[in-house]
Amino acid sequence: MNIEYILNNISFHIQIVKLNIIFRLNKSSRCDLNPLTKNITSYLFKFPIICIKAIKINILYNIKSSLIELNLKKSNLRNPLKIAIIGTGYVGLVTGACFAETGNDVICVDIDEVKITKLKKGLVPFYEPGLDALVQRNIAQGRLAFSTATVAAVEQSQVIFMAVPTPTGEDGSADLQHLLSAVYEIAKGINGYKVIVNKSTVPVGTAIKVSNLIAELTNQPFDVVSNPEFLKEGAAVDDFMKPDRVVVGSDSQQASDILKDLYAPFMRTHDRLIVMRVESAEMTKYFANAFLATKVVFINEAARLCEKVGADINEVRAGISSDERIGRHFLFPSLGFGGSCLPKDVRAIVQTAKTFDSRLFIAEAVLESNELQKKFIPTKILHRFGNNLAGLRFALWGLAFKANTDDVRESPALVIIDALLAAGAELAVYDPQALENVRRLYQSKLIYAASAGAALDNADALIIATEWNEFRHPDFQMLKERLKHPIIFDGRNLFNAQNMRALGFEYCGIGLK
Predict the structure, then answer these.
(1) Under a CB-based contact definition with an 8 Å cutoff, are residues 313 and 302 in contact?
(2) Which of 151, 162, 177, 306 could be 511's S-S partner, Cβ–Cβ 3.0 to 4.6 Å?
(3) What is the pTM of this model?
(4) pLDDT tens figures, 485-505
């Protein structure tokens, strides 16, 4: 083979590549490239044998490229993951419904047969905006199911989320009895590699404890992962669909990859998934809530001092929260924090520290200060009306610990109710969602109003304990007419103090002169 032939062969292949590029450009841009191709094709026809060989090579190359492209596309596709959620409480149901919404096959399990029967009909046992529609839609589309059979659910699932209650024990630590009971049932159903995901809030070291327990009960392969939840009640669906972070604690690359794949639909604009050690993930949940609780307590302590010195906490808040290092979130004066997470988690992290012969002085002070803040409004009422409230009726707007939920667990409103009842007062209460939950607790001890306005009838004063939107812009003239005395104890600072006093109200807020 002479030099001329080699050079012509190389030149020919260059022309083929050029021609291929031109044709691709022509296909994508729709521009007229004929003048460019005439010169190249005239050159190619001078070497017909080489041309045929090169065309074969080019065809094979294009076929190979197409197959590679097809395989790449296939690699981005997957069959729906089969997921079991153990526990249909707040966290479990939101998690299951949201994973079903992204195309996975989800079965939620609970030992409460009555609850499961209702869920199969699409009846959500608690109030959370948007969750009813999400559950009903995914049941109808066959992606979300409910069962009481834990073992069967585990057998047919690849990923198992534990979302069972971990209530506060007698010593303040998290009670793991429900979680460990679930672990025994899960172990019975492990029939191949499974990823066991702990979604419940648990003390550091729980993942290792769970892993050791399962290893004693089965010789099947598995990994235990920590994946704490950071859902806000009242905005849980949106929080899950658009998370500010997803924390995965895992020492297994295989398990981490599965969780990354599972959460990928929620990370399309920005990857917020953080993989860390299991122990770090368990601690992250507790310290996140402890820090938020600290911010709530801090602004409430500031409010108490503002009242004494003649400052306005709303003005102080505006001044300090403009500093980006401090921020605006969780700095609203209130009656204190409640609910299912902050009180329980702060107590648990305090107890965890004691277990390791350490103390969290700030967290301990947070709990003490928060209990003091819950008594703030009752103290003001007793100061205004005297210690004996017999013969007086108070209207109480808001029973849930926060707006957009029916959760009354550790709600400051309950502290107000207990204090006023103990002093002999009568209470007419109203809440858009939490009325029945309070009725179960107090039964005939309270008057249950059908509306905010109805609660005012024959009331000597109004107390506002929850920041529902419907309370923000009432008919103030109606308020004055229906109350025996135009007195408002506002535990959420919904109104402007100066405006209220100008309207003739005796207005008592938090941290206001």
Answers:
(1) yes
(2) 306
(3) 0.81
(4) 999 999 999 999 999 999 999
